[in-house]
Design goal:
54% strand; mainly beta; globular; Jelly Rolls; 112 residues
Amino acid sequence: MIKQSNEVPEETSSLKGTKGCTLRWLIAEKDGAEHYAMRLFELKPGGLIPVHSHDDTEHEIYIIEGTATLDGDENKITVKKDDVIFVKPGDKHSFINNSDKPFKFICVIPTI
């Protein structure tokens, strides 16, 4: 299966407190993926994904565009294009886009 990411329907994030964030389920169970799902997130300038955690799910994140502040259990750090992030189950994390450009990242999660 091959498809264009811009042809995948864009959704608004359902996480309470999120603003200026959309996502696309690039590869999901409906595509036949049995173990992992791949999502493309876009955080608009001024956008926010609030601090949250997932007790039983890890995330693998690859930043493809822009910069943002990653806030979590340890401290706030700036993340940028080509950074990779591993979020362990239970780790608190959030993203804040304080720039004037979009912040985009790929997030891979188990389909569990």
